[in-house]
Design a protein that fits this description.
Elements: E1 5-16, E2 23-36, E3 39-50, E4 55-66, E5 68-69, E6 74-85, E7 105-115
Antiparallel strand pairs: 1-2, 2-3, 3-4, 4-6, 5-6, 6-7
Length: about 120
């Protein structure tokens, strides 16, 4: 979008099953990041729904991480993430960040891959 600034999309589909009934969680969201050399700072918004839209809520992730480029346009990006629920009156975020109980916020470690389009040669 601009020098040292990027926008992106979050798309996730999670299917959980055990001996009982299975459940699915779908996430659609966006994020913005600012890069200072290879370190980035970001924030975004996600809309989550479970089991066919019967439950939905939002979350706001705030992150700091590092972009380790393995090619000119592909990087591995570990990040520390703090996520807040936007619907805390309804129990927060069920199971978010690996917590086995409803939480209104949570810390996590995320490792992702990114594809950079139009990144100039060094």
């Amino acid at each position: 979008v601009g020098e040292n600034f990027t926008l992106g999309l979050n798309l996730e589909y999670l299917n959980q099953s055990s001996s009982g009934p299975s459940s699915t969680t779908t996430t659609i969201g966006f994020f913005a990041r600012y890069y200072a050399n290879s370190v980035f700072f970001g924030a975004g918004y996600n809309s989550l729904s479970t089991s066919g839209g019967s439950t939905s809520w939002g979350s706001i992730p705030i992150e700091v991480g590092y972009a380790a480029f393995i090619t000119r346009n592909i990087s591995i990006e570990p990040a520390l993430v703090y996520t807040m629920a936007t619907d805390p009156d309804n129990g927060g975020m069920p199971g978010i960040a690996g917590l086995p109980f409803p939480a209104k916020s949570g810390f996590g470690l995320r490792i992702g891959f990114s594809l950079y389009l139009g990144r100039p040669a060094d």
